[in-house]
Amino acid sequence: IVSERRLSDTRKRYVSERAEMIPPSGIRKFFDLLLTMNDVISLGVGEPDFNTPWNVSVAGIDSVERGATAYTSNKGLEELRDLISSYLISRYGTSYDPQNEIIITGGVSEGLDLAVRTVVDPGDEVLVADPCYVSYSPCVTLAGGIPITLPCPAEDEFRITPDTLMEKITRKTKLLMMNFPNNPTGGVMKQGDLEAIADILVDHDLLLLSDEIYSELTYEGRHVSPASIDSLWERTITLNGFSKAYSMTGWRVGYFCAPPEITAAALKIHQYVMLCAPTMSQYAAVEALKHAEEAKDRMVAEFRMRRNLFVAGLNRIGLPCHLPKGAFYAFPSIESTGLSDEDFAERLLVEHQVAVAPGSAFGPSGIGHIRCAYAVSREDLDEAVKRIGEFIDSL
Ligand code: PLP
């Protein structure tokens, strides 16, 4: 045992300072606990509970059967880039040339890392709209940048306001990273909100990284893509993908869109680190864009119903919750219970078998909230509301 320990201490010294700086995930311990329990309703996982549309899966299987399993070009299948380009212009009014301005990535996850490493130098400050998806700050840290949280609290309906943005900009600021519709809050930025921050970004010559993975899951009005605003196009990297809209989380396919100079620089990194996105998944994604509109619409309609039902239930039992305008998360405040969000999540899981994620895991503005993914059946949502209500009554 002693020699084992000595060895592992030695090995630890090999770990880089940047890797050491990445904090442990704030939700990992809940998942570990969950695995040891029975009869749990899990509102903790951020993925659709629908199967990938079967015709999409068949397209992936078909590519294997006909031996289309080799690398594609680094940028990704031309047919897929063409389809993405047409989809983006017709759906969101964002114009990207499939030859020079689109790269198919290994999910938005790769896109985030790629985008940050393409534009951030060591010491650059990166504003991270907070709360946010758990990988944002680690991506910045790994690139040598300094993540700075930009609060998007419930009072602002979880949006970025011009005043908070102005407050956080310094001479070192290079990039603003944001995700709307948002994980974990379900908040969205409307046209007016984006126009209000566009001038600030232009005046301070800042870049924008816009993660739009939930763009199809928009329930009120339409999704506005920042790059559709003329003054923002040249300074925006748009990321999107297939995981959420087509229930394809395991296929690992997304896309990176940016002006040609930025895309060319990103391609240099992508070609060495990823080479190309999984080939079979790219064929499946082609089918998704061609023939999965109906399946997607059905899924979005179901999420809308669940959202209405679940949020009404939360408010009824005394957990104030904004109506999320997109994604599939509700982000109620639990402050009235007097518990911290961590304690609330842990006790709710242990005592009433409902798994949720503590809001603080998504950044300081998430403190005092819990994230509930309504990616389970309506029956389970009803039961979850009942159990959460019982838990609150027991306090
Ligand atoms: N960005 C956000 C905001 C997410 O919530 C997620 C997954 O939950 C991702 C990116 C990762 O997406 P992908 O599966 O395309 O890597």
TrEMBL record:
Subunit structure: Homodimer.
Record EC number: 2.6.1.-
CDD domains linked to this entry: AAT_like
Enzyme type, top EC level: transferase
GO terms of molecular function: transaminase activity
Residues of the Aminotransferase class I/classII large domain: 39-388
Protein name: Aminotransferase
Classification via InterPro entries: Aminotransferase_I/II_large, AspAT/PAT-like, NHTrfase_class1_PyrdxlP-BS, PyrdxlP-dep_Trfase, PyrdxlP-dep_Trfase_major, PyrdxlP-dep_Trfase_small
Top-level division of the source organism's lineage: Archaea
Record key words, sorted: Aminotransferase, Pyridoxal phosphate, Transferase
Family statement: Belongs to the class-I pyridoxal-phosphate-dependent aminotransferase family.
Cofactor: pyridoxal 5'-phosphate
